[in-house]
Amino acid sequence: MSAIPLDIEALDTRSSRDGRADRSFKWLVGIAGVFVLVSLVAAALSMLWGGRLAFETFGFKFLWTDAWDPVNQQFGALVPIYGTLVTAFIAMLIAVPVSFGIAMFLTEVAPKWLRGPVGAAIELLAGIPSIIYGMWGLFVLVPVLSEHVYPWVDEHMGTWPFVGRFFAGPPIGLGMGTAGLVLSVMVIPFIASVMREVFLTVPGRLKESAYALGSTRWEVVWDVVLPYTRSAVIGGIFLGLGRALGETMAVTFVLGNAHELTTSLLMPGNSIAATIANEFSEADSEMYRSSLIALGFVLFLVTFVVLTVARLMLRQLKKREGT
Amino acid sequence: MSRACHIANIALSSDGYGMRASTRGVAPVSKFQSLRTTTLTLALVLAGGFASAASAADVTGAGASFVYPIMSKWSSDYAAATSKKVNYQSIGSGGGIAQIKAGTVDFGSSDAPMKPEELAKFGLAQFPSVIGGVVPVVNVPGIQAGAMKLDGPLLADIFLGKVTMWNDPRIVELNSGLQLPAKKITVLHRADGSGTTFNFVNYLGKVSPEWKTKVGEGTAVKWPTGIGGKGNEGVAAYVKQIAGGIGYVEMSYALQNKMTYTRMKNAAGNFIVPSDDSFQAAAASADWKNAKDFYLVMTNAPGEKSWPITATNFILMYKQPKNAAGAKNAKDFFTWAYANGDAAAKNLDYVPLPDALVQQIEGYWAQNLKY
């Protein structure tokens, strides 16, 4: 009989101990979460502080002037911003459908024995340093494009109404189109392997029922697998987009690094990350250095705005679907 | 200056100088102190392995990549002769100036000289180390190295984007014997700031008034046209790859990569092939005697045989250094290099300084570097 009060006492101490552990665990993960926010804001603020000379001097004009003249100390971020957005856009345009195809092939179509090796190859691709992609772009892709692809593009697509100006230009091989291509190859493994992983989490029973109702493979992936994994797929796409926006080394090799505003994808341009990487170590005046740091802050803003807009768009889409 | 030093320190630390940057850093900087300390601590951890090696060096220097090959050859020879170690970091001319201003190295080096007023402001002394040349390189089908002739104004107009075809009448006129294709000219230049660029655009400014007013001179400029490559090797790679390309590189890069360099018309009106002799001729005809603090850009030098885009590398040192022992060691190193380093320099396609200039430098040291 005396066992019961003893037990209650033990349970009491245990539950209070558990409560303490729970609270401290809550604090711990809370701190980890807040840490991300704090470091994000701190990074942005320190760049804003470093670029204050440029922002004070040029004001908001810094964002939409295309001057980049170290001799006369005139700086504007338009050309690099434009180049960053355009190359990332091209990269996503190619990478998202291709990655979707890869993931779908690996989870639904490919024979079992092939899934392992191809999946491993995709993950291996993600691990290749970006400078290797840059060298591959410069020494392999550029000659092929400049000899066989871009002359045709210039001749045939350059004359199209409205969009022709995107494709007209000298077939040098270096430029925003090439940079976009190289970027797409670089982000495909990220997006594809995330997509593959989440496609694998879809319960077999769901897919089987869809098949049982007479769905084709495409219908199963498009109407069952994709809606089920939407948020994770979007996460993967954002991971790729983030890399495309901030990629430096590979882009520097094939972009042409010219501070010229041009609509043609065949012409050289510049991106924010490439400009900073190229010019930072030799920036010989306060204003020059400050402008480069300011450019870093702008990259921060651009990434933030692009990701926010993308999220908002996706939310709209979701609403329309009513899911 | 505060931010500059701060950044300079980070860059330096990541190069393996963490120890030096932290022990000899810059004058106290209130706002950045804590941030800097954190960064330096981090850098120290990262640089751990290198730090001991860096502090073991008797002389530390940083700057122009142009002289990196000869600096490393000299320092290994010097170590063999005297068992003293010289550690030179190739971080670019702008970086060299920033590092010596910050006092984190015993000497800095730059392919563009600093103006005497600016030297005085920081208490720095300046003297030349070796001479080299910047050469235009082209990729025109069927044209051999040294075959094409160009003159200064024409080169400037090509880089201004005014002459756009290889069969332009002005190029044809200079090259009557050559078969020039109707190919578009693609201009290739440096994407990063560079002493090579400084000497090249300085020359263009001297021969073309339009270049001087429109673009001006500096280690980085607003290029009117063309594509940027990173480093000498970047420009060389692009020129080799793009048919119809024209760029400019240090002579050794042109030779190593077997590139098609051009002849240039010099100030005396002769077409000159770039070579050690024509660089030496430019060095000999330059008026060093009247150059205060050796502030002299050797481009467009007079003299029958002078190569017009001859460049000098300059060494920057404090007149009153914080680390007197290191500075003295650096001075000893250059004394040794001037006396014993000529053969090594020639082997690596540099031109050693003429003897008269070395004597002038030693006189300058006696006046300015009293350690």
Automatic annotation (TrEMBL), chain A:
The entry's family comment says: Belongs to the binding-protein-dependent transport system permease family. CysTW subfamily.
CDD domains, A to Z: TM_PBP2
Q: Which gene encodes it?
A: pstC
Q: What does this protein do?
A: Part of the binding-protein-dependent transport system for phosphate; probably responsible for the translocation of the substrate across the membrane.
Q: Return the protein name.
A: Phosphate transport system permease protein
Give the domain of life.
Answer: Bacteria
Q: Which residues form the ABC transmembrane type-1 domain?
A: 81-310
Q: Which UniProt keywords apply?
A: Cell inner membrane, Cell membrane, Membrane, Phosphate transport, Transmembrane, Transmembrane helix, Transport
Membrane topology, as annotated, equals: Multi-pass membrane protein
- Subcellular localization: Cell inner membrane; Cell membrane
Q: Which InterPro entries match?
A: MetI-like, MetI-like_sf, Phosphate_PstC, Phosphate_Transport_Permease
Please give the Pfam families that the UniProt record associates with this protein: BPD_transp_1
Can you tell me where the transmembrane regions are? 27-49, 81-106, 118-142, 172-199, 292-314
